[in-house]
């Protein structure tokens, strides 16, 4: 029986940053209050010219590089998101195209917060069934602007 594992993780953060001090100028809060309760110091926001599939593509490219894989090694792309720009083509197909993956099976998984775990389970089932050689799974989220 085939097994599966997470070979690498990639991440991407957009350049636009909102600090706790910035937030304190908008609402009644402080840097100390936020850090002491949730540990957050900064937030990154995507600009209107940064679609979600672009963010996911950057993160997936880092994961591929970290795993020592080429786009041709991937034949299944799963994207877990609740913030896709459009329904068709799906985000997984867009990410695959951005990465230059030649002919992948590409599927979005829309289960909001639980989407990443569903994507991992789906990838694991595919690997155990002997289908994909490699796998790319990402969980991009973009909050409303």
From TrEMBL:
It comes from the Bacteria. Gene3D superfamilies: 3.40.47.10. It holds the Pfam family Thiolase_N. One of its GO terms (biological process) is secondary metabolite biosynthetic process. InterPro entries: Thiolase-like (IPR016039), Thiolase_N (IPR020616). One of its GO terms (molecular function) is acyltransferase activity, transferring groups other than amino-acyl groups. Residues 49-131 form the Thiolase N-terminal domain. PANTHER family: 3-OXOACYL-[ACYL-CARRIER-PROTEIN] SYNTHASE 3 (PTHR34069), BETA-KETOACYL-[ACYL-CARRIER-PROTEIN] SYNTHASE III (PTHR34069:SF2). This is Thiolase N-terminal domain-containing protein. It comes from Streptomyces avermitilis. The lineage of its organism: Bacteria, Bacillati, Actinomycetota, Actinomycetes, Kitasatosporales.
